[in-house]
Amino acid sequence: MAEFGFNEHHQNEVINYMRFARSKMVLRLKTIDSCFEELKDSRLVEETFTVDEVKEMLDGLQAVVRGEVEMELINTAHTNVLLLRQLFSQAEKFYLRLQSDISELENRELLEQVAEFEKTDFKTAKINQETSKPKLLAPLNEGGVAELLNKEIARLQEENDKLKSRLRTLESQAMSALDERTKAERALKDLQKVQGEQQLAAQFQELSSLEDTVAALREDYERSLSAKSASQKDLQENLISAKHELLRVQEQLSLAEKELDKKFQQTAAYRNMKEILTKKNEQIKEIRKRLQRYEPNE
């Protein structure tokens, strides 16, 4: 196994996996053999068979064997995924990134070396029976990945210390700012208290002045209201007198119009005009009668 560059521990791990894979393979081959034996025991009981019967038996056997092989291939693929999961999980705990080359899985030379190992070394290799298997990948050497990890841990520790120091400084500044804020709030409250007392006194004084002003305005309003009431009463009396005078004048005008109309009707011109209008009306009536006689449809 030296061609693959494995150490003894990894070589034992490979042997364990190959033994596991071989046990699964042997179990699946036994299942396939049992399929053929079952066919022989259940169907091959006659001396002669038709072509259709042979074809039917082969098709059934093909379906069973195909299902067994497909199941084994799927199970093998899933098992390999679980194996890779273990390796990757262990590698990630040490911040390692494993990488695989899929093309190497079909390398005929490497496959032949694995087959040769299975024929020779696999049968004679001694597996180291350890009481407790390591659950994590161990560092390759102190000068490689472990050194990088130690440097990264040291850098992170240093950065963490800096952040802690910065945090303590910020906390100190925050406490100072909080004290200053408390003092400012206390001073503001005292100032507001003094200003409140002064403002209250000023408000009392302003309120007293406003009360005096309102009292003076109320007195002026009452005087103005009394004067307005007297003036309104005089205006109402004058209005009543004016209405009476207007009615008297309208009555005189009506009498004068009637008297004038009466005098006008007694004049000769009015009588002549009335006679002329009467004659004209008679003439119009006569003309209408003639028109109706000559033009009845009109």
From TrEMBL:
InterPro entries according to UniProt: LZTFL1 (IPR026157)
Main location: cytoplasm
Location(s) in or outside the cell: Cytoplasm
Keywords on record: Coiled coil, Cytoplasm
Coiled coil start-end: 146-290
Domain of life per record: Eukaryota
Transmembrane segments: none
GO biological process, one term: negative regulation of protein localization to cilium
GO CC field: cytoplasm
Family: Belongs to the LZTFL1 family.
Assembly notes: Self-associates. Interacts with BBS9; the interaction mediates the association of LZTL1 with the BBsome complex and regulates BBSome ciliary trafficking.
Function: Regulates ciliary localization of the BBSome complex. Together with the BBSome complex, controls SMO ciliary trafficking and contributes to the sonic hedgehog (SHH) pathway regulation. May play a role in neurite outgrowth. May have tumor suppressor function.
Protein name as it appears in the record: Leucine zipper transcription factor-like protein 1
